[in-house]
Amino acid sequence: MAIALNTLVEEADRFLNAARIQDYCPNGLQVEGRPHVSRIVTGVTASQALLDAAVEAEADVILVHHGYFWKGENPCVVGMKQRRLKTLLVNDISLLAYHLPLDVHPEVGNNVQLARQLDITVEGPLDPDNPRVVGLVGSLTEPMTAGDFARRVRDVLGREPLLVEGERMISRVGWCTGGGQGYIDQAIAAGVDAYLTGEVSEQTIHSARENGVSFIAAGHHATERYGVQALGDYLARRFAIEHLFIDCANPA
Hints:
By secondary structure, the chain is α/β, with parallel strands linked by helices. Helix content is 37%, strand content 25%.
């Protein structure tokens, strides 16, 4: 079964409430391809590797979390950007991308989906007074050591995380997928035992150590694999079309 491209885009925009979220890039349809869709390929980032795999999979639409046209980037269509866009245009494939709308969504969002993977019960936002902080806070079913929690993260995400081990058992966790290390101060203020994100900065280590909380950096790519899969599954069910997630490995 095939549906109109504009029908798919309108539903994704509506479902994610994309128009109401200020972002660093355009959300929604970034490159227009053929007018009808029967197969979606999803992935974390619209890299050349993903584009090539999607061409091989005969995709009509590539749906990603990290798309193109970021604020402040060089707008010239040269080099890597030219090759990526040429791949889409020559093969008549659409690129659909959602950044912050896919981080914050209460059903298919990266943060909610990561909580489900790690068996964390969501309690609410990491910083209720600041909606731009997209992280969450929640609790584990049973308290565990930082080492045990890090091993759970490793087993689920398939990647050895960086661990700064605090002194206390972990029962309350704050997290923000991707590059959320700058929110560690909000996590500390929220009274968590551990803070989990994708990346780490030099000062993050000091903040964790000096405030007695555990910190885990589990990888930007690894922590953001689940939202786009959930969105792809939703659209596939909604319109009875095919969906294939392709994971292009990235150690960062």
